[in-house]
């Protein structure tokens, strides 16, 4: 938790997008991030901004352009629909606002490049929301890797299992890679510092909601990534974890191993005649509440200090390059080398 500097003015923040993650971020900014002041929420859907902003003491706007033009907004947190991310990052930078954007920062490498270029031109911080880096367990795993406690990484693993699909028709194509496994990809890249991915092989299917496979929904996937330092990593995702929201990571190396992640709500385990029982969390905003808080606090610190944040647009670009390679691998059935240059368009 960040302690407020009594001599510093708060970072005045506007949130664009009042959906599920926007609601979580707005509440954390208003209630748990001392360096932040939630000034406004913008969402074009009737009533959405009012319902979120009102109880938090912020003003509600229906046009994001109004928020970007506001003189009392120093920074913008973008939690709008994914396809709007790149344009909003560019517009926010042009307005001189520091930018925090939920992942992915665009649907193509060209989109992310636009955001990087725009924020560089404006000289404003640009942070992307890879929250696992700010989770205590994952951060401790990275510290162990940095300290050489696992030696040279050899085998790595990242897991994301979501409790379910409330509405399969609302899931855009390739979501399992662009929005879900992109977190695992970033985690694996981050936990193998200094190494670059050279080959990606992915398989995916509709095992949870097979009736929707023809619409492009893939709900189960496994990825294998080979790195130039010899490490082999796997990432898996499923939208059918009946027991709760499950996120885990592992690095096995020449000198040892670290593991992190637990779906348990607390360390309490209950035993009775039916067996052993542990309560589990049901969503990312519950499991990663502290991590979300910490990443937003880091964003505020970067804005105050006029520096690059801990997670940059370039980090977002690396993760997206691997996610796009996953999509191409599923299409071709072959290993794919992640792109290093910009791409003109995202796969559909």
TrEMBL record:
GFO/IDH/MocA-like oxidoreductase domain boundaries: 138-258
Pfam families found in the cross-reference section: GFO_IDH_MocA, GFO_IDH_MocA_C3
SUPFAM superfamilies tied to this protein: Glyceraldehyde-3-phosphate dehydrogenase-like, C-terminal domain, NAD(P)-binding Rossmann-fold domains
The Gfo/Idh/MocA-like oxidoreductase N-terminal domain, residue ranges: 11-130
Family: Belongs to the Gfo/Idh/MocA family.
Record-linked PANTHER family: BINDING ROSSMANN FOLD OXIDOREDUCTASE, PUTATIVE (AFU_ORTHOLOGUE AFUA_2G10240)-RELATED (PTHR42840:SF3), NAD(P)-BINDING ROSSMANN-FOLD SUPERFAMILY PROTEIN-RELATED (PTHR42840)
The protein's name: Gfo/Idh/MocA family oxidoreductase
Species whose genome carries this gene: Kineococcus glutinatus
The organism's taxonomic lineage, starting at the top: Bacteria, Bacillati, Actinomycetota, Actinomycetes, Kineosporiales
